[in-house]
Amino acid sequence: MINPKKIEELAKQLSDNLPSGVKQFAGEFEERSKQILQNQLMKLDVVSREEFEVQQHVLLKTREKLEALQAQVNELEKSLLSN
Protein backbone atom coordinates (compact mmCIF):
# COMPACT_ATOMS: atom_id res chain seq x y z
CA MET A 1 0.00 0.00 0.00
CA ILE A 2 2.28 2.81 1.22
CA ASN A 3 5.98 2.47 0.62
CA PRO A 4 7.80 2.48 4.01
CA LYS A 5 10.96 3.68 2.28
CA LYS A 6 9.15 6.87 1.18
CA ILE A 7 8.03 7.48 4.76
CA GLU A 8 11.60 7.06 5.99
CA GLU A 9 12.84 9.48 3.32
CA LEU A 10 10.24 12.06 4.31
CA ALA A 11 11.08 11.68 8.01
CA LYS A 12 14.79 12.09 7.19
CA GLN A 13 14.09 15.23 5.15
CA LEU A 14 12.14 16.69 8.05
CA SER A 15 14.97 15.91 10.46
CA ASP A 16 17.63 17.29 8.08
CA ASN A 17 15.78 20.60 7.92
CA LEU A 18 15.66 21.13 11.67
CA PRO A 19 17.40 24.26 12.98
CA SER A 20 20.99 23.68 14.15
CA GLY A 21 20.09 24.14 17.84
CA VAL A 22 17.66 21.24 17.61
CA LYS A 23 19.93 18.88 15.61
CA GLN A 24 20.84 16.94 18.78
CA PHE A 25 17.26 15.66 18.80
CA ALA A 26 17.27 14.84 15.08
CA GLY A 27 17.37 11.05 15.50
CA GLU A 28 14.50 11.05 17.97
CA PHE A 29 12.58 13.55 15.85
CA GLU A 30 13.10 11.47 12.71
CA GLU A 31 11.87 8.30 14.40
CA ARG A 32 8.87 10.02 15.98
CA SER A 33 7.89 11.80 12.75
CA LYS A 34 8.13 8.46 10.91
CA GLN A 35 5.77 6.89 13.45
CA ILE A 36 3.33 9.78 13.18
CA LEU A 37 3.39 9.68 9.37
CA GLN A 38 2.80 5.92 9.33
CA ASN A 39 -0.07 6.19 11.82
CA GLN A 40 -1.77 8.99 9.93
CA LEU A 41 -1.33 7.34 6.54
CA MET A 42 -2.78 4.08 7.87
CA LYS A 43 -5.95 5.98 8.82
CA LEU A 44 -6.46 7.03 5.20
CA ASP A 45 -8.68 4.88 3.05
CA VAL A 46 -6.32 4.43 0.12
CA VAL A 47 -5.63 1.68 -2.38
CA SER A 48 -2.52 0.75 -4.30
CA ARG A 49 -2.08 1.89 -7.88
CA GLU A 50 -2.49 -1.73 -9.00
CA GLU A 51 -5.81 -2.08 -7.15
CA PHE A 52 -6.97 1.22 -8.63
CA GLU A 53 -6.12 0.12 -12.16
CA VAL A 54 -7.91 -3.21 -11.68
CA GLN A 55 -11.04 -1.42 -10.48
CA GLN A 56 -10.76 1.06 -13.35
CA HIS A 57 -10.67 -1.87 -15.79
CA VAL A 58 -13.69 -3.49 -14.10
CA LEU A 59 -15.58 -0.21 -14.33
CA LEU A 60 -14.76 0.13 -18.03
CA LYS A 61 -15.99 -3.42 -18.76
CA THR A 62 -19.14 -2.79 -16.71
CA ARG A 63 -19.81 0.44 -18.60
CA GLU A 64 -19.38 -1.37 -21.94
CA LYS A 65 -21.83 -4.09 -20.86
CA LEU A 66 -24.31 -1.48 -19.65
CA GLU A 67 -24.13 0.35 -22.98
CA ALA A 68 -24.66 -2.93 -24.87
CA LEU A 69 -27.67 -3.76 -22.68
CA GLN A 70 -29.08 -0.28 -23.19
CA ALA A 71 -28.77 -0.72 -26.95
CA GLN A 72 -30.62 -4.06 -26.70
CA VAL A 73 -33.39 -2.47 -24.64
CA ASN A 74 -33.69 0.33 -27.21
CA GLU A 75 -33.98 -2.23 -30.03
CA LEU A 76 -36.60 -4.22 -28.12
CA GLU A 77 -38.61 -1.06 -27.44
CA LYS A 78 -38.45 -0.16 -31.14
CA SER A 79 -39.57 -3.59 -32.19
CA LEU A 80 -42.47 -3.53 -29.68
CA LEU A 81 -43.59 -0.08 -30.82
CA SER A 82 -43.47 -1.04 -34.50
CA ASN A 83 -45.69 -4.13 -33.99
Automatic annotation (TrEMBL):
- Gene that this polypeptide is encoded by: ubiK
Where does this chain mainly localize? Answer: cytoplasm
Which key words are in the record?
Answer: Cytoplasm, Ubiquinone biosynthesis
**Which protein are we looking at?**
Ubiquinone biosynthesis accessory factor UbiK
- Annotated NCBIfam families: UbiqAccUbiK
Q: Name one GO biological process term.
A: ubiquinone biosynthetic process
- Supply the InterPro entries for this chain: UbiK
Cellular component GO terms held in the UniProt record: cytosol
Q: Which compartment or compartments is the protein found in?
A: Cytoplasm
